[in-house]
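pasting for the record
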Amino acid sequence: YVSLTTNGNLLTKEQLTAAVENGLDELTLSAHGFTRETYEYLMTNGKFDLFRRLLANVAEVKKQHPQFKLRINYTINNDNLEELSRIWEVAGDELDILQLRPIQKIGESEYQDFDLTNIYARYDAVLVPLIEECRRRHITCLAPDKQNIIVLKENEADDNSIEKITYCYVSPQECWQDDFDYRKETFESYAAAHHMGRKLFGKVFGRRARRKADVTRKMNYNIK
């Protein structure tokens, strides 16, 4: 299953058609606003007109390739929460999967409002009707439950050892572990040198009971 994640602003109809014909199963569009002002404010260098044009191109491509799927990945914050109700007038009937992510600080970003209080308070008024409408339209919705948002507001679950090893964040400023040198090491050599496998087995089979991490900061969805 081949999926491409992009903001889509440079993706032409010809490129999209060629990609689908060569095996692209899904296009995941990052879109963090459904008005011009919010979209262009939150999507650095993004153009709302190009986003709308791409959605029209997706509709044309899907006529020839009905198995092709469109996913929208929407990071919810205090500036775009209320715009979720406008998704239908923007995305139309082409949406197959909607992925809703409450904002969180994973790496460095220009946007700095990570407060989830209002998102939690407005969950029943904004997110619940949206999830129900997705179900009515037979659209898969990946969304957090209310308790998932609480987990994001509080500290991470205690037992996140596997997550820390398998989630390897890389940016121009940082690379996974502070002492990991990507120029000289591989994941395998680093893991062996730091006995990561032994430590994981100790967490799983050790005598001290660990609280099961049902939700983490990186995995906090439920399929609706």
